[in-house]
Specification:
It is built from 5 helices and 4 strands, in the order βββαβαααα. By secondary structure, the chain is of the alpha+beta class. A 4-stranded antiparallel beta sheet has the order 3-2-1-4, with helices on one face. A hairpin with a 6-residue loop joins strand 2 and strand 3. The longest helix is centred in the first third of the chain and has 21 residues.
Length: 141
């Protein structure tokens, strides 16, 4: 699971830059300059993807061929990855809680895209789902 999407960054006739994502049309933002637009794009992308999973929809796969690579904020990416892995596992929240040795309420919070979860809890959830988190670092856009 890789949460990097290509964005179109275009000059806005009203000033600044407009940012859109072909793969995530819900993520639209603006910035006064290019750097601000890129920073806003990362936030808008994370919000849009969290909204998609909150609605019960699948996260779209990146398919755009051109644009500027925008990575989802690392905290959002890990949370989204846990939610995706949970859905793929086809188990209940109660079963996830059992596997983690936690209460069902704790499992619900881990799976809530808007709840801030500690990295340790997210790692535990991934392990309970038979997955591992791998971190990658690359040059900034």
């Amino acid at each position: 699971m890789r949460y990097v999407y290509l964005a179109e960054i275009q000059p806005d006739p009203d000033g600044g830059y407009l940012v859109t994502f072909a793969d995530v049309p819900e993520a639209i933002t603006h910035g006064g300059d290019r750097n601000e637009a890129i920073a806003s794009a990362q936030e808008a992308l994370g919000l849009a993807l969290r909204g998609i999973v909150q609605d019960g929809r699948a996260i779209p796969l990146p398919s755009a061929k051109t644009g500027v690579a925008i990575a989802v904020d690392p905290e959002d990416a890990i949370k989204l990855a846990v939610i995706e892995a949970f859905r793929q596992a086809g188990i209940s929240k109660r079963e996830l809680a059992r596997r983690m040795g936690k209460t069902e309420n704790e499992a619900r919070r881990i799976l809530d895209p808007d709840h801030n979860s500690k990295i340790g809890a997210l790692q535990e959830a991934m392990q309970a789902l038979g997955k591992t988190i791998v971190v990658s670092v690359q040059e900034a856009a």
